[in-house]
């Protein structure tokens, strides 16, 4: 789907993630006589000298992401500002595209402007630190100097007012707006569904590459990469 493609592109531009091993990438371009994949099965690395390479969004990446937002997301927001003559299917498409775009770029989207209100005084909550695995000098994504989350929030508030007043039976659209609001308020590069997928991927890789009989005699490169990336996502 187009929305999933847009989300994937924005995630690649705006997120921090491990790059594929240069050696493995170079071998993938060789013929089978020079580089047979099975020879590198469960290849190990020395953790003391292992230096994984990371993708950190550059200003060029953020500029491209902002261009995608201007070309594909802002028109959807403008269309939703006048939903009177819009059918349910069209409205749903607009909302889903906006949500996927926000989810894909969320790692580089600053949180809402304004003061923070903590809930530490609540008897059911404890003071918990929320570290963010992101360099302080990494560029952020804005649109003409405005906070993207604030722009989308304003649009969704107006849309909800319209839906509650004129289309209160359009449960699907209202539900998707609520999901989008949850994404705006809680997502900074990863949501619960994607985290579960990452955990399952790590467990699958571990089951495939590990030797259940002889045990692990070294640090498997692909397994180390997935574990490191998983720990990075925990801190998002």
UniProtKB/TrEMBL annotation:
GO molecular function ontology, one term from the record: peptidase activator activity
Any Gene Ontology CC annotation: nucleus
Proteasome activator Blm10 middle HEAT repeats region domain segment(s): 4-106
Domain of life: Eukaryota
A Pfam family annotated for this UniProt entry: HEAT_PSME4_mid
GO term, biological process aspect, one: proteasomal ubiquitin-independent protein catabolic process
The protein, known as: Proteasome activator Blm10 middle HEAT repeats region domain-containing protein
